[in-house]
């Protein structure tokens, strides 16, 4: 059989399809990145643009890496990312499996569960501060209706605040993981299950050999994007706790904002930004390799 | 006596469906409490919104919505007494608090900006993203893995860090505080998600479909448009919603890069100040109204979102 090639060649289409995206990203991202790298070696202050820029070598990096507070912030950020991802994967994947049973009205409930993530994170942060308020908020009111804990404040107690931001983020973004898992479940072709049925495979085996391998690439994609977002989390937590009480919810981006826009140490904040970027870059490099291995299986 | 129903392999038993429904509805009910509370607070009026204990039953009032759309000034009793009686219901609501309407608030203009920037950038990100995802999925592109990782890495810089260089760059290009500038920026932020997600979806579509179409005389481009795109509808719908949600609600760039012409609603809504603190009724009214376009858009795409992909024709 001779296949005639008509229209544009595959090579031409590949370039036409990929080039606009790459050009746009180069234009928007390369200049800020190069500029940030350059400033991280200077003592530039954005509120004094006329002052002469002085090259300070690696001093900004040395000062950040020897600062105990920065390490504590990174640990807090890691704690936040780890627990939000853990809870969201368990809840999101679980809900997706249940919704995939296609009970009556599952479409309506899927849409309703998506609602929290449609809100603006800044509004969500602000709003949960109101819900968590020990006087006028509804959260304590409902919790104390189940079990009387007395007066407590989720956002101003040192032991509770790190969990308050995890609760709110999980409430908001579990639907994200759920929706992508659901899309993955929907993409499992029926004939795979029919074939398994002929082989009399158990429910557990079907889950392990068919469902999980088909859903895992989507689940991992969802986790990857949520983890990146949460590593640089700013608006929700800033509006909810502003990093307090003390420094207990001070995540990396909140630190960055304070350095850059409250203390105006642009050089140092640039160095911190590059350190954060390299950390995420390295972590994601490992994660993507893992993801490719799962996909190839 | 009825005979037990014979299930096909992909159908679930009735008990299992009941169990699934109960757990899902339970989760939804709990997670919807804050949303319902926002809708309720929008109709509570400024004073009732901060009552203790929190009010569950109340006389509905449109005060929050009036406050959202107007700026007001407080006046003395003598001044109010010599005014003609209020002509409209919103003036009446304002007058009850010893205030008069001074003018419209910026909310409506910012809402329009959000519509233009949010939907515009989502549309471009999806078009470009689908094309790139298809190319990465189907063709041998040199350094494909590195290019994909570069695309992903553009998402890793915190907005707080790149806001200043982007501001300087935009000022030099005349793009600062313009709709075009924000659309380009949000497209760039979203395109990494679009490419990666859509590549995931397109990878799942068997190549046999396009190859069969091309044997029948379609060009590669026609096969992409008429065979792959319809098959990828679920993925495109889901990706569109994710991109729209991010662009619609983006806060840090909007706060740091726009001052007037292109300012969107998210930095405005959580900061509506009333007498002695936040005006929670107005904030809730704003949050509720701002949620609606995304909700309507999601309902509009729901048919595609929930459709299963059926690969009946191609069996291996």
Please tell me about this protein's structure.
The complex is a heterodimer of chains A (297) and B (316). Chain A has 297 residues and is mainly α. Helices cover 72% and strands 0% of the residues of chain A. Chain A has helices spanning 10-39, 59-65, 68-99, 106-118, 121-132, 139-146, 161-186, 190-198, 203-231, 235-240, 252-262, 266-296. In chain A, helix 3 packs across helix 7 (161-186) and helix 4 packs across helix 7. The longest helix of chain A has 32 residues, at 68-99. The radius of gyration of chain A is 24 Å and the shape is globular. The mean pLDDT of chain A is 87. With 316 residues, chain B is mostly helical. Chain B folds into two domains: 34-75 and 280-309, no CATH class; 108-267, Orthogonal Bundle (MetI-like fold), CATH 1.10.3720. In chain B, helix 6 (144-153) packs across helix 8 (179-203). Chain B is globular, with a radius of gyration of 26 Å. Residues 309-316 of chain B have low confidence and may be disordered. At the A-B interface, helix 1, helix 3, helix 4, helix 5 and helix 7 of A face helix 1, helix 5, helix 6, helix 7 and helix 8 of B.
């Amino acid at each position: 059989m001779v296949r005639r090639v008509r229209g544009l060649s595959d090579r031409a289409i590949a370039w036409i399809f990929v080039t606009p995206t790459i050009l746009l990203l180069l234009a928007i991202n390369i200049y800020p990145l190069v500029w940030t790298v350059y400033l991280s070696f200077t003592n530039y202050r954005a509120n004094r643009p006329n002052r002469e820029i002085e090259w300070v070598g690696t001093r900004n990096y040395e000062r950040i890496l020897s600062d105990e507070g920065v390490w504590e912030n990174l640990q807090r950020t890691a704690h936040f990312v780890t627990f939000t991802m853990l809870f969201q994967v368990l809840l999101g994947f679980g809900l997706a499996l249940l919704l995939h049973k296609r009970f009556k009205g599952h479409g309506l409930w899927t849409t309703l569960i998506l609602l929290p993530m449609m809100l603006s994170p800044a509004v969500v942060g602000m709003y949960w501060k109101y819900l968590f308020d020990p006087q006028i908020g509804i959260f304590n009111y409902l919790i104390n209706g189940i079990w009387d804990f007395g007066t407590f404040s989720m956002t101003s107690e040192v032991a509770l605040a790190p969990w308050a931001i995890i609760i709110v983020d999980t409430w908001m973004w579990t639907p994200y993981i759920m929706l992508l898992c659901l899309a993955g479940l929907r993409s499992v072709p029926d004939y795979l299950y029919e074939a398994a049925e002929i082989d009399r495979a158990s429910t557990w085996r079907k889950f392990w050999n068919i469902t999980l391998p088909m859903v895992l690439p989507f689940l991992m994609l969802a986790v990857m994007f949520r983890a990146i977002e949460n590593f640089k989390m700013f608006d929700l937590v800033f509006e909810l706790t502003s990093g307090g009480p003390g420094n207990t919810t001070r995540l990396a981006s909140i630190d960055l904002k304070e350095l850059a826009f409250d203390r105006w140490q642009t050089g140092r904040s640039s160095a911190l930004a590059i350190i954060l970027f390299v950390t995420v870059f390295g972590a994601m490099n490992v994660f993507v390799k893992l993801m490719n291995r799962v996909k190839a299986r | 006596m009825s005979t037990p129903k014979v299930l096909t392999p992909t159908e679930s038993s009735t008990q299992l469906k009941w169990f699934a429904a109960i757990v899902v509805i339970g989760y939804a009910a709990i997670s919807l409490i804050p949303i319902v509370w926002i809708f309720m607070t929008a109709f509570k009026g400024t004073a009732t919104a901060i009552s203790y204990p929190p009010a569950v039953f109340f006389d509905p009032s449109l005060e929050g919505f009036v406050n959202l759309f107007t700026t007001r000034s407080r006046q003395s009793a003598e001044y109010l007494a010599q005014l003609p009686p209020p002509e409209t219901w919103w003036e009446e609501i304002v007058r009850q608090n010893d205030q008069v309407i001074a003018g419209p608030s910026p909310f409506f203009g910012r809402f329009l900006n959000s519509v233009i920037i949010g939907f515009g950038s989502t549309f471009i990100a999806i078009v470009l993203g689908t094309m790139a995802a298809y190319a990465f999925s189907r063709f041998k592109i040199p350094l494909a893995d590195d290019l994909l990782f570069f695309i992903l890495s553009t998402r890793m810089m915190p907005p707080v860090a790149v806001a200043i260089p982007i501001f300087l760059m935009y000022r030099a290009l005349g793009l600062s505080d313009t709709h075009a500038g924000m659309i380009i920026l949000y497209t760039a932020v979203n395109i990494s998600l679009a490419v990666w997600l859509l590549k995931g979806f397109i990878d799942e579509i068997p190549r046999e479909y396009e190859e069969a179409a091309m044997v029948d005389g379609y060009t590669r481009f026609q096969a992409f448009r008429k065979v792959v795109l319809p098959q990828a509808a679920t993925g495109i719908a889901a990706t569109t919603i994710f991109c729209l949600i991010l662009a619609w609600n983006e806060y840090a760039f909007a706060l740091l890069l726009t001052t007037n012409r292109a300012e969107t609603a998210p930095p405005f809504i959580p900061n509506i100040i009333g007498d002695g603190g936040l005006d929670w009724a107005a904030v809730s009214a704003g949050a509720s109204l701002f949620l609606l376009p995304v909700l309507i858009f999601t309902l509009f795409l729901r048919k595609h979102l929930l459709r299963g992909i059926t690969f009946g024709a191609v069996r291996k």
